[in-house]
Amino acid sequence: PSSKGGIAGAVIEVSTDGKKFKKAGQWEFGNLINDPTERLYVLDKAVTGRYLRIVPQQTADGNAAVIAEIGIYPEK
């Protein structure tokens, strides 16, 4: 698998109406090119929303951001 454009750091935002978003978390995954293993990020607290926005802050190689798979799980 290619790591081209892999998101190394991003902000997660949620919204109930798709217009006003609030920051729900932020991650930094580091070197995805040399270590392309699956990453997991858990929010500090549960959030409610209908819309999710991931705002890339940096990519592993400086290319446009790419997401291959994303899983969202409910609070346990």
What is the straight-line distance between the termini? Answer: 31 Å
Overall body shape: globular
User: Count the strands?
Assistant: 3
Question: Strand share of the residues?
Answer: 25-35%
Structure description:
The chain is mainly β and 76 residues long. Helices cover 0% and strands 33% of the residues. It has a three-stranded antiparallel β-sheet, with no helix packed on it. A hairpin with a 6-residue loop joins strand 1 and strand 2.
SSE blueprint:
Blueprint: E1 7-15, E2 22-28, E3 51-59
Antiparallel strand pairs: 1-2, 1-3
Label this structure with key terms:
76 residues, mainly beta, three-stranded antiparallel beta sheet
Describe this structure in a few short sentences.
With 76 residues, the chain is mostly beta strands. The chain contains no helices and 3 strands.
